[in-house]
Amino acid sequence: MKVALVGFPQSGKTALFSALTGAEPGRAKGGITLGSVKVPDNRVDTLSGMYHPKKTTHAVIELVEAHAAHKGESRVNKSALDAGFLNLVKPMDAFLLVVRAFDEEGLNDPRADIDALLSEMIVSDLMLVETRLERDGIERKKGKQGMPGEERDALDRCFKLVDNNQRIYDDPELAARPELRTYAFLTARPILAMVNLGEDEIAKPTAEVLARFGLPVAGMPTFACCAKSEGEIQAMPEEDRKEFRELLGVREPVLDIMVREVYRALGLVSFLTTGEDECRAWTIRRGTRAPRAAGAVHADIEKGFIRAEVIAYDDFIALGSEAAAKKAGKYRLEGRDYVVQDGDIVHFRFSG
Ligand SMILES: Nc1nc2c(ncn2[C@@H]2O[C@H](COP(=O)(O)OP(=O)(O)O)[C@@H](O)[C@H]2O)c(=O)[nH]1
Ligand SMILES: [Mg+2]
User: Which ligand number lies closest to the CA of residue 26?
Assistant: First the structure.
């Protein structure tokens, strides 16, 4: 899964990037900085403690800092979301808007910033959908066939939404339509927001702080942190972090909050694989069937899929071993139609 941090300069994207990835903000390559966020998952650590594998691997969310939005630049002369930016973010699964609320002079208006970023994204989609519909109209006038009816219908519906200053994702069924996939509309994907607070606000209840700014925007998962402090905490030895968080009044690491919100927004779950070589968590969309999930591990396993042998993590822990789980009838053989659940420990059988 890939998430792009999008925001105006000086909003704290780099600070958040470092806090989440634990990496020094590297030099941007081709306008973006790439990193990966380790998905916190106690289950992986527990399994690793039992199997003592050579390798322990957490699921990751890939994070991109996109350096493209320029506050206040005229859309006519140079859009904040120019073509280069649009290309960069095309492969993203979700966007995290980063907005600034740490100005000491009180010049913060994170709500206005979110609205501005959002309308840039909506305008970008509007221009795309208009162009395509117009072109299709011209083709038809010439007596050519034009695009398939379903595609045209989907684009018409997209047009109605974005022309009405709404996101395509406001209609999730429409946003998921396969005919729209190639268009890569920005607002057809989940958009979240992170309000970057000053140090003096981090101990306050999030809902209260957000409400003061007129947030959240309807339908947009929004959270807050102080990216600068989070980065400082992240740079400490692990055993000191908890105490320092308490000292500052930070209830939960922004990493945990971000991962939870992204998982929820994208409908993600994790399944687990165990063994002497590696204990590992894998990310899939909720509702993924076993062969497809196997494909997350390796394409050959999906191709030669025979069955999945599954123990729910909680059963495994309660019973203590695979043998005990088998005895208790908690070791299941599942076929191609099985929908893999969050926390399933899976062994795939395949012919290769
Ligand atoms: N007080 C405060 N300053 C921050 C916070 N996050 C970032 N900054 C500062 O704001 C400036 C811009 O941050 P940066 O992460 O580079 O913003 P970017 O342009 O969006 O990548 C830097 O001087 C940061 O130290 C924060 O949460 N609180
Ligand atoms: Mg930056």
Answer: 2
Write down the CATH number for the domain with range 287-350: 3.10.20.30
**Is residue 3 a contact partner of residue 93, using CB atoms and an 8 Å limit?**
yes
- How many A from CA of 246 to the centre of ligand 1? 22
What CA–CA distance (Å, rounded) separates 258 from 195?
12
CB atoms within 10 A of CB 301: 20
The CATH number of the domain covering residues in 2-40+60-132+189-264:
3.40.50.300
Ligand 1 neighbourhood includes 110 CB (under 6 angstroms): no
Residue 229 Cα: closest atom of ligand 1 = 27
Output b/e per residue, 182-213; b: 16+ Cβ within 10 A.
ebbbbbbbbbbbbbbbbeebbeeebeebbeeb
Among protein residues, the one whose CA lies closest to atom 13 of ligand 1: 12
Q: Please report, in tens digits, the pLDDT of each residue of the chain (352 residues total).
A: 999 999 888 899 999 999 999 887 665 555 567 889 999 999 999 999 999 999 999 999 999 887 654 544 433 334 455 666 777 788 899 999 999 999 878 788 999 999 999 998 999 999 999 999 999 999 999 999 889 999 999 999 999 999 999 999 999 999 999 999 999 999 999 999 999 999 989 999 999 999 999 999 999 999 999 999 999 998 999 899 999 999 999 989 999 999 999 999 999 999 999 989 999 999 999 999 999 999 999 999 999 999 999 999 999 999 999 999 999 999 999 999 999 999 999 999 999 8
Write down the pTM of the prediction. Answer: 0.91
- Find the 198 Cα to ligand 1 centroid distance in Å: 10
Furthest C-alpha separation in the chain: 72
Q: Are strands 344-350 and 222-225 parallel, antiparallel or unpaired?
A: unpaired
Q: Is it true that 2-40+60-132+189-264 and 287-350 share their CATH fold?
A: no
* Domain boundaries along the sequence of the chain: 2-40+60-132+189-264, 287-350
